[in-house]
Write a structure and sequence with these properties.
elongated, 4 strands, UPF0750_membrane, Alpha-Beta Plaits, 2 domains, alpha+beta, four-stranded antiparallel β-sheet, 10% strand, 62% helix, 280 residues
């Protein structure tokens, strides 16, 4: 096993621990079944008192076997490790942990954040803890329903069960946790270092390009375009800048060409020369 693989397994381990922590100190004590296999295991725990970690393992085994059949053997090793790590951590932590809050809103928010960080780490290091993503893949394989819709169906069923066996209020908080978890996963996957992407259409593109290069020490990419209404040839500049540079660029572009057409959009991640190194 090389250094890269060791780091990946350490990342999956850390992520699994955080997910287990979110379950044992926020979600399970407050009966928040936030979708997926862990949510289903939470419902089963309150009905039967059967350990959550073992329940997750039992549910995940047939899902894993079906996943290997569909996606091949290469899918298997990290998934086994992720499933086992999460199950073991959950059952080891639960007897020694107590709820940090009895407030359902706080529990749903912090459970979503901590669990989302954990899942984000697992995904970032090319792992999986089984559960919802496996269910969604199986739904997609057997029915043709998209993975996104499959995730919604799987989580929706678990939240509905929580509403039936617990109460509607708890189910609504579970939906809050699912939303926060998904947003946190995106942050961990994409990072917080957001950039701004600029598309600048101007008859003075050369001067604007020179300003970007000289004043901001940034580079641009130029496209040849044609106006759809006028049919005139246009030059379009693409530039990636930091959020702090947006006001400066807008003022500078307006000084050069007050009729320039500028589109500014959020860019969640930029890979390549001058930005984040591409990780293989």
């Amino acid at each position: 096993m090389n250094k890269k693989n060791i780091i990946e397994y350490l990342g999956i381990t850390a992520g699994s621990f955080l997910i287990a922590l979110a379950l044992t100190v926020f979600l399970v004590p407050n009966r928040i079944a936030a979708g997926g296999v862990s949510g289903l295991a939470t419902v089963i725990y309150y009905i039967t008192s059967f350990p959550i970690g073992i329940t997750m393992l039992i549910i995940n085994i047939p899902l894993f076997l079906a996943g290997v059949k569909i996606m091949g053997k290469s899918f298997g090793v990290r998934t086994i490790y992720g499933i086992a790590s999460l199950s073991i951590f959950t059952d080891l932590l639960q007897p020694h942990m107590t709820s940090l809050t009895d407030d359902l809103l706080l529990a749903s928010i912090y459970g979503g954040v901590v669990g989302g960080i954990g899942l984000g780490l697992v995904f970032r290091f090319r792992g999986t803890t089984g559960g919802t993503d496996l269910i969604a893949s199986l739904i997609n394989y057997y029915t043709g329903i998209s993975v996104g819709e499959g995730l919604l169906i799987a989580d929706g069923i678990v939240v509905t069960l929580a509403g039936i066996f617990f109460n509607l209020e708890v189910a609504l908080y579970a939906a809050v946790t699912i939303f926060i978890t998904s947003q946190t996963i995106d942050v961990i996957q994409e990072g917080l270092n957001f950039k701004k992407g600029l598309l600048i259409i101007s008859d003075k593109a050369e001067e604007i390009n020179q300003m970007v290069v000289d004043d901001l020490n940034r580079s641009t990419t130029e496209f040849a375009a044609k106006g759809g209404y006028t049919g005139e040839k246009k030059r379009v500049l693409l530039c990636i800048i930091s959020r702090s540079e947006v006001s400066e660029v807008k003022r500078a572009v307006a000084d050069i060409d007050k009729d320039a057409f500028v589109i500014i959009s959020n860019v969640h991640e930029v890979l390549g020369e001058g930005f984040t190194e591409i990780v293989r």
